[in-house]
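2024-03-11 09:14:02 DEBUG pipeline.ingest accepted 1 chain
2024-03-11 09:14:02 DEBUG pipeline.ingest length=97
2024-03-11 09:14:03 DEBUG pipeline.predict start
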Amino acid sequence: MRKDKRQKTKTRITKMLELPQEVISNEPKISLVGFHELLIENYKAILEYEDFYIKINTHIGAVNINGFNLRLKEMTGDDIMVLGTIDSIDFESITDE
């Protein structure tokens, strides 16, 4: 019950301040520019890194990036940018059971 009240308060504050949802939550925001640039905001860790495959952990699951000549261009504590020829992106969600 207390968690629901806290969530409702967060939602109200977010709407009042007109903040994007990803700013106050741990949910990742993924932006793809063409097939050569991918930006993931709110990531947790790099799980695997090869020039043909990168697996990045987020708070809601893993993001798998497949392609050629993949490389990490920029990394901050919250954001990571992947460059290269991106063939596919798939997701492994964490289930709440």
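2024-03-11 09:14:41 DEBUG pipeline.report The mean pLDDT is 85.
2024-03-11 09:14:41 DEBUG pipeline.predict end
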